[in-house]
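Exercise: predict the fold of this chain.
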Amino acid sequence: MRVFQRRLIVGLVIAAALLSRWFHLDAQSVWYDEAVVVLFSGKGLAWIFAHLTQDTMPPLNYLLLHFWLGLGRQEGAMRVLSFLFSAGSLPFAYLLARRLFGRRVALLAILLAIFSPFQIYFAQEARMYAQLSFFSLAAVYFFLLAWQEGGRWPWLGFALSSIAAAYTHNLGLLTLFSLDVFALGTVVVRGQGSGDRGQGSGVR
């Protein structure tokens, strides 16, 4: 495939992703959970930290939305932050799938992510789920990059994105837990393989 054709396809994919998330962004009225998040985020920083014990979620989404609300409190304006996080998660979905399975699977993965009803829905909701998706995908991608190639910057990217995921939603800890299980299982399997080879060498 020529470079121009590839870039054209990428451009069309990006345009489809943005349009699917932007379309009717402000069509729905703010519902209860959104209203609670906006109410919390609209208070002063001291109030937010003082009353976090009344909520079950970590503070990062409230803090980011607190500053974002300075741009406007209309339905569409307050949801643009989620729109941006949802759009930003698409490159990580593509890069992660390409690293694991190759370019063709990555293209399929990005198409599924673009038109995923869940992704579109949470891109249009002033809550933390699009943000959680972004940081979780980033954490997995940087972990895989660091695990395979090493280097300081991938590990730093993993640390920052995994911390951000944990401080966005409690479920962000599951991403970190699953990666820990993967790392531990890989180390154990490699250790058993080394032991088997060592025993084989002794028999010879």
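Check your answer against the key: The chain has a mean pLDDT of 84.
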